[in-house]
């Protein structure tokens, strides 16, 4: 409570300059407000992705790179590994994940739905009870083709704050949330999540300005090319002719001049008329265009070299550090955005195919070594293996197993490793 005659002192952290108005009542920064950007609806998102090459690239490139090298199933038996890979391939896990991830980025969300024969779609899915051969396929839908209903308000539920059911737009079918896996675009705040009807937001929400600015600048530059040379005519009495309504005479005169210029590569004028050609220069326009693209690159976390497919410019420029950062970003997409949905699909396929083990895997590396880099790695590995072999830490078959796993030599495979191990056992018994 304020005491009598007590002086209240307001403490403010910041610079103040009365002469310059800094920190005062007329400081222009005090009037800054950040306004809500453009809301990207279904039609805008669809049009951008389908018809604009730059908008399509910022969606496709990271997802295509995240699925391009795909994954390595961690099973030592080659035949068993090949069998499982074929079963996974028959349900197109890679294709469904790629499509769902792109649509999630474009529209703000998507789902992959499992269609299983003989099961009620409104009932929870128990993967362990899926009967072999009943999985029909997987279906990908964007957020505008399936709507959430019945939001879970039980705070102790694993599905708290999320829809219990989803309704397919075209046939009105209710789907229990366990029968689909849901991808978000940009994960929003709780407020935005509710405003977006429990979906994420399109990446174009954040990329609208840089993409729009870049395309506007490029189009403006293209239009300026047609204005690179401007013919200037100085016609005596032009104003008087226009004032008298004799515009047709002026136009006819100019058309004749252009026609004669085309025929004789020259121009004929009245003795009192003048002609001049103005040439515009565009020396700074490429730099302006590049700066706009760089902003798109920064906003999308895609290096310009990858976004445009061009080599890095400048002295000693390689773009290596940019690409390494980009690879880290793509790996984050693989682990955080894609892996949960891949694992969900794998579990369903495993139950359908009678596979009684968890499908473990790792994503293949994005960066491929050159022949020189690979040779250097192989040489260092060989020296390391020789040292450990001489120390008695590893056996020759251990080295062969590593070579077989890496696929270094065609003749060194799992079968040969097994034969060598048997021979070692026989020598030991003798």
Please tell me about this protein's structure.
There is one protein chain. The protein has helices at 42-51, 53-68, 78-90, 93-107, 190-195, 204-225, 238-243, 247-264, 285-300, 304-308, 320-353, 371-390, 396-406, 414-429, and strands at residues 71-73, 109-116, 135-142, 146-151, 163-168, 174-176, 180-184, 229-234, 274-279, 361-363. The chain is an alpha+beta fold. The strands form 4 sheets. Strands 3-2-7 form a 3-stranded antiparallel sheet. The protein has a 3-stranded antiparallel sheet with strand order 4-5-6, with no helix packed on it. Strand 5 and strand 6 (174-176) form a beta hairpin. The longest helix is centred in the last third of the chain and has 34 residues, at 320-353. The N and C termini lie far apart (96 Å).
Sum up the overall morphology in one term. extended
- Which secondary-structure class do the elements indicate? alpha+beta
Query: Strand arrangement, largest sheet?
Result: 3-2-7
Strand residue content: 5-15%
Number of strands: 10
Q: What is the domain total for the residues?
A: 3
* Radius of gyration based on Cα positions: 34 Å
Keywords:
430 residues; alpha+beta; 3 domains; 3-stranded antiparallel sheet; 14 helices; 10 strands; extended
């Amino acid at each position: 409570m304020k005491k009598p005659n007590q002086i209240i002192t307001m403490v403010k952290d910041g610079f103040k300059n009365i002469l310059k108005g800094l920190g005062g009542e007329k400081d222009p920064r005090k009037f800054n407000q950040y306004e809500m950007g453009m809301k990207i609806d279904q039609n805008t998102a669809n049009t951008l992705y389908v018809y604009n090459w730059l908008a399509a690239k910022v969606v496709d490139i990271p997802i295509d790179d995240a699925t391009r090298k795909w994954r390595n199933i961690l099973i030592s038996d080659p035949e068993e590994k090949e069998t499982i890979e074929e079963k996974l391939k028959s349900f197109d896990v890679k294709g469904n994940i790629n499509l769902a991830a792109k649509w999630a980025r474009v529209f703000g969300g998507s789902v992959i739905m499992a269609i299983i024969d003989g099961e009620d779609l409104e009932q929870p899915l128990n993967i362990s009870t899926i009967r072999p051969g009943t999985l029909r396929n997987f279906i990908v839908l964007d957020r505008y083709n399936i709507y959430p209903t019945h939001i879970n308000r039980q705070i102790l539920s694993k599905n708290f704050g999320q829809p219990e059911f989803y309704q397919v737009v075209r046939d009105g079918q209710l789907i229990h949330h366990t029968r689909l896996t849901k991808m978000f675009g940009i994960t929003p705040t709780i407020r935005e999540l509710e405003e977006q009807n429990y979906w994420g937001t399109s990446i174009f929400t954040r990329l609208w300005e840089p993409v729009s600015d870049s395309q506007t600048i490029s189009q403006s530059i293209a239009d300026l090319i047609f204005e690179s040379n401007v013919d200037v005519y100085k016609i005596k009495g032009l104003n008087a002719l226009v004032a008298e309504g004799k515009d047709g005479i002026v136009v006819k005169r100019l058309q004749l001049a252009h026609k004669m210029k085309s025929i004789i590569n020259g121009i004929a004028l009245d003795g009192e008329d003048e002609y001049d050609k103005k040439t515009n220069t565009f020396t700074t326009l490429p730099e302006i265009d590049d700066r706009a693209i760089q902003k798109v690159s920064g906003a999308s976390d895609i290096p310009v070299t990858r976004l445009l497919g061009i080599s890095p410019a400048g002295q000693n420029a390689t773009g290596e550090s940019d690409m390494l950062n980009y690879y880290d970003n793509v790996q984050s997409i693989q682990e955080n955005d894609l892996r949960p949905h891949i694992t969900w699909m794998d579990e369903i396929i495993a139950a359908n195919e009678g596979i009684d083990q968890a499908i473990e895997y790792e994503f293949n590396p994005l960066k491929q070594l050159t022949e020189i880099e690979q040779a250097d790695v192989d040489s260092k590995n060989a020296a390391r293996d020789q040292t450990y072999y001489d120390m008695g830490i590893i056996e020759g078959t251990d080295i062969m197993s590593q070579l077989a796993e890496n696929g270094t030599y065609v003749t060194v495979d799992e079968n040969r490793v097994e034969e060598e191990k048997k021979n070692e056992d026989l020598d030991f018994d003798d």
